[in-house]
Amino acid sequence: MKFKVRRLAVTFRNQLNYPLQFNPFVFSKLFLLWVAIGIVGGIIAGSYWLVLEALLHFLAQFQSYYVIAVMTAAGLLAGLIIHFLGDPGEMDLIVNNIRFKGGRLEPRNNPSMILSSLLCIASGGSAGPEAPLVQIVGSTGTWIARKLKIKGEDLRSLSLAGMASAFTALFGAPLGGTLFALEILHHKHVVEYYQALMPAFVASCSSYVIFILITHIGIGPTWHFPVYAIPELNDFFYAMLYALAGTAAGWLFIFIVRQCRLGFKKLRLPIYLKMTIGGFLIGLLAYFVPLSRYFSHDQLNELLAGEFTVHFLLVLLIVKILAISLTVTSGWRGGFIIPLFFVGATVGMLVNTIFPGQNLPLILVSCMAAINACVTRTPISTIILLSTLTGFHYFIPIMFASLTGFFLAPKTPLINAQLGLKEVD
Fold first, then answer.
1. What are the φ/ψ torsions at residue 393 (nearest 5 degrees)?
2. Which CATH superfamily is domain 233-419 in?
């Protein structure tokens, strides 16, 4: 006992004699690195968004049957870019690299991803910029870690911090973006990446600030949802009931994606021909149903503001699911999170039109939460993301709907890498 007391006294005396050798705060040098990753991510995401907006504005001039020609040409050009500059991969590759390759995301194909995704998204593909930016910023985190000779879990953490900062920049939710970056890896393995939670959160916060400063988007809700009244106890049960419709749409989406993927695989064509065919088909759908075009960031507000018949909403639902499926399986670059929210909102509008007089905000948010949790297996982050994007600040109904979609999801996930099996080259 005396020895322990003596050792503590010596330790305390040494700390007094050398006060500069210890830091009394949690703050460390790594904090600055996490902030730097977020700043770089915010700059990349902000610059990407400005270029994308300019391209969207330019290509939006082509309407009517010109849409088919523009999207066919965009598919061919984007396919040639990927063919000659290299295939940057998709979300399956990102998840596998994080899980099985120490978190290393290769930046060498970033030029291909940037150019091809800008073309695909701006021309009207039904996939958003979240997946390309996750790849670009995440691989930038890997590159910075390599330059600083960082290895092991710290390297993985920096890659995840880059991914989280990209999600956050687009969704405007630092906590939601952080959790989504960890949760998308697979719900059973989130605890494996607890070390990355704080780096990802710090990077997300700094990325969000930089992105807002560059784009001047603002910090309010993205979509103009109807006002939700004070919640009642029955709303939780209604949320689960409405979530069944969103979950059913999720099953339909997964089924169609798998059928389209099988169809394009059987064609055995070069990537640029598959993307050309995909562009023609997506353009054809956009010609007949214009609201199905693009990744639905702005189109969701059009949907909420309009009054549509049951027939139109049914057609829009099927066409949009088909458009997203063709986009992601024909080689077009982009993510399907925001388009899925649009599909969920369409399901909600359809339910409200068939059964009028219901609580529309609750129906919408329940269907949106359920379909995203069903397809992406991210029930926790979906709650926070939806609350931020819609201004629906009552978490509990969204929780019930999100968990309903998650637990009623197909046993085999859409993102194959979430199974936990390493892909064989």
1. -95, 5
2. Clc chloride channel (1.10.3080.10)
Q: Do 33-215 and 233-419 show the same overall fold?
A: yes
Tokens representing 300? Answer: 């969701």
- Count of residues making up the chain: 425
The answer to whether 321 and 282 are in contact (CB under 8 A) is no
Q: Are 88 and 304 in contact (CB under 8 A)?
A: no
For the chain, the structural domain boundaries read 33-215, 233-419
pLDDT of residue 99: 54
318 vs 250: CA distance, rounded Å: 12
Question: Any residues with CB less than 8 A from the CB of 213 and at least 6 apart, and which?
Answer: 42, 46
Cα dihedral sign for 266, 372, 112, 423?
negative
| Rounded mean pLDDT, 27-31 | 72
What Rg, from alpha-carbon coordinates, does the chain have? Answer: 23
Output DSSP code: residue 409. S
Residue 335 — φ and ψ, nearest 5°?
Answer: -110, 160
Among 218, 93, 217, 214, residue whose Cα is nearest residue 159: 93
- Average pLDDT, stretch 176-200? 69
Q: What does CATH list as the number for 33-215?
A: 1.10.3080.10
